[in-house]
Design goal:
two-stranded antiparallel ribbon; about 230 residues; five-stranded antiparallel sheet; elongated; alpha+beta
Length: about 230
């Protein structure tokens, strides 16, 4: 299934060759794995299933909590702004760590996070880097986005995700605050979650935005190095 990580998928023959097993044996194994959502299908190709990412994220959750706590605290102390790290399990978004900024005026994470799931930039960037089966599972649980994410409503959903993946960052600029998010990974392309940053809008000019994005990317890179 190595080639499926890029989204192309792997054929039955390719998997059998890679495992040095008979086609019939591999077909039966894949049927069982597909029934349990560990793999999926894209035409005649096999792709990672919705549970594949859940297993890896679950296995690394405690380590992720421990690693991210200190790194988010350091980032919040340097920038003065608020940070949050989120992931997805079984189609539901979950907060792993969060750290309030130390500026006298800042964004309260609890308030900023109290929004519909598709309003949150961390959700958007995680979906942009998730595989097809994980996205399908997320939609089954949460439905499709509405006007809270106008760039991805209806037929624009896949296009909106592709744009985010190309940019590598999700951004939302509101009247009262700005929010940014970048993905974190385990392995080369496997999505672990996302780090989000919140800052009051009055404090974010062009120069400040560049500084914040640099701090966000640095925090994500430092976490990635641990996996």
């Amino acid at each position: 299934m190595e080639s499926s990580r890029s989204g192309s998928g792997a054929s039955l023959g390719e998997i059998a060759d890679g495992l040095n097993e008979k086609l019939t044996t591999v077909r039966n194994i894949l049927k069982t794995m597909e029934a349990c959502d560990y793999i999926g299908r894209k035409g005649k190709l096999y792709i990672p299933g919705s549970k594949t990412g859940d297993l890896s994220r679950s296995a690394n959750l405690d380590r992720l909590k421990n690693v991210s706590r200190t790194l988010l605290e350091n980032a919040a102390r340097r920038t003065g702004e608020s940070f949050v790290l989120t992931t997805v399990f079984h189609g539901k978004r979950e907060i792993v760590s969060r750290c309030q900024g130390n500026n006298e005026v800042g964004v309260n994470i609890g308030v900023a996070e109290y929004k519909t799931v598709y309003s949150l930039v961390t959700t958007r960037i995680i979906l942009a880097f998730s595989n097809e089966m994980e996205r399908r599972q997320f939609i089954d649980v949460n439905g499709l986005p509405g006007e809270e994410w106008p760039e991805a409503v209806g037929e624009k959903f896949e296009f909106g995700l592709a744009q985010l993946k190309s940019a590598g960052v999700a951004a939302e600029r509101k009247e009262s605050f700005c929010a940014y998010a970048v993905p974190i990974f385990y392995g080369d392309e496997n999505i672990m979650g996302a780090i989000g940053l919140f800052a009051p809008a009055f404090r974010v000019n062009e120069k400040r935005e560049i500084e914040l994005l640099a701090a966000l990317s640095e925090a994500a890179e430092n976490i990635n190095k641990q996996f």
